[in-house]
Fold:
Amino acid sequence: MCNTLIIYSTTDGHTETICRRISNFLNSKNDIKIISLDEATKIDLSSFNKIIIGASIRYGKHSKKLYKFITINKSVLDQKQSIFFSVNVVARKPEKNTPETNPYIKKFLKISNWKPKKIGVFAGRVDYPNYGFFDKYVIKFIMFLTNGPTDTSQSYEFTDWSKVDEFARELT
Structure:
């Protein structure tokens, strides 16, 4: 039996990278399973002691699939040691980089009506060179409005890896 399940909901892969980094800090790597949200819909969550869900933001929202997953599995999640973290570029700003101050965490908790035992938020990445035309220019516009980087020839990683590591250590 796996003791820990780590589920990621990602658009461009960065949330999965953060999940894998967190798994490096958890005890007994053989007792950890990392899967996508789509894969998680096909397994029995009750066989895990600890469930960690990491989810990214795109265009100001978490995935609809994430909300559906939480709704369907809320009773199991409430019985387990459940952990949630959000990955969003807004968290690059010091005044919005805690669960108490991040607008996406607040919105998620209100809509999902889920109360994870531990909550985290991490700044994400803007990867202009790998975006399609539409995403590239919509995200550039959002970055312009929020005083973020707009040079579409570059990628910008805002993740504070020491913060991710500290969060992961607290889960052991």
Q: What stands out?
A: The beta strands are 4-9, 32-36, 50-56, 81-87, 118-122, 125-127, 155-157. The helical segments are 14-23, 37-40, 64-79, 103-112, 133-145, 161-170. DSSP finds six helices and seven strands in the chain. The chain has a mean pLDDT of 94.
